[in-house]
Amino acid sequence: MDLRPTPLLPDGYRVPASRWENQSARLRKLMEEKPYVFGPGIFDPHGAELVMYFGFDAVYFSGYSFAIGHLGTTDMDIYSSVEIADGARRIVSALRKFQLTMALGDPDKDEAPVQLEIPPVVADMDVGYGNVFNVMRTTELYVNGGVAAAHIEDQVMPKRCGHIAGKALVSADEYIAKLKMMRAVADDLGARDFVIISRTDGISATEAPESKRGLELAIDRALRYLDTGIPDLLWCEFPTAERGQTQEFHEQVRKRFPDARFAFNYSSSFKWMNEKEPMTWDELSQMGVKFIFITLAAQHAMGYGFSQLLRDLKEKQQDGYIDLQRLEHAGNGEVPTKSHHLFTGVPYHHKMGELMGMGHRFGSKVDGKLSKEAVF
Q: What DSSP character marks residue 123?
């Protein structure tokens, strides 16, 4: 790993050189080098940091995740472009900061530095939050916020989650105009590597300008979108985990576009556990899928884990929490958040505060070491 210094770390500490690499270009490079890129779905910066800590290729930030994590509601276009764009920007910013805090470790407690690559952030743009000029503004916010890729879908506004009934599509011409605007804005900002993912909800749509419905409509829409030359990846939202429809869609599209590349939602809405032979990521890769994601991975994990703790607290009071601490600290340190101070960068803030001449505000020396109790 190529490591380099940064003025945001003390002398002698390094971060991966990819810190200064364009994240869209990095995502494209990963998709070329790997059979597929996988991005767990998160809803906040903390979840994104965990994805980064465990070394995943990308971070996926979905609208449904945002609706749950920030509004406590469902995915039916209830939030605005500025809200979700700011959520994505904060995630990108948090990952850059997290790289610094992990690269320092905790010198006072002999916690070694951990060198982490920053995963590109792929974000949901829903339907663009309005007309083509709303798409113009949203794309600018995403690009300037450091997002590596975004997907936009062909539903009417207000849209619905791909697995909620009652979806309707705008005309293909209107949607293509939005794709053109995304590409134009990104290029104008000098972000020519910005990855555009085109999504169709044609299979499940109950309303559309065309007479076609179901898989036929989805394939027709997909071909029209690829005809523009704009989408880097094509995503069809499937209604079930059934293998046949997925294979048929990809095969039919690749008859016209042999080099077409796809994104695939390994959706939390599907009961994969009930499938006799659930599709594997390697199989999807063979169909041309280059980006795989689980939209609500973090939400389901948090819901399960926190529910366990809440039950224990209700039944065992303080012992419920003590049991959690035992689990966190057991084994060989596989739970990175067991020290919330280390994970969030308290040692980094103390050290850099001292180096910047603010030691009296961010910590005080006790026997030659910073006292963490000075502030926290």
A: E
Contacts for 278-284: CB closer than 8 Å, 24+ residues apart: 278/241, 279/241, 279/243, 279/246, 281/36, 281/38, 282/35, 284/36, 284/246
For 250, the 3-state DSSP assignment is: helix
Contact 241, 279 (CB under 8 A): yes
N- to C-terminal Cα distance for the chain? Answer: 34
Interval 13-59: pLDDT, tens: 999 999 999 999 999 999 999 999 999 999 999 999 999 999 999 99
Per-residue model confidence as pLDDT tens digits over 327-356: 998 877 688 998 899 999 999 998 998 888
161 labelled catalytic: yes
List the catalytic residue out of 91, 104, 161, 222: 161
Give CA–CA dist 296/65, Å, rounded: 6
List the CATH code of the domain at 3-295: 3.20.20.60
- Residue 372: the pLDDT is 47
**What are the extents of the domains in the chain?**
3-295, 345-376
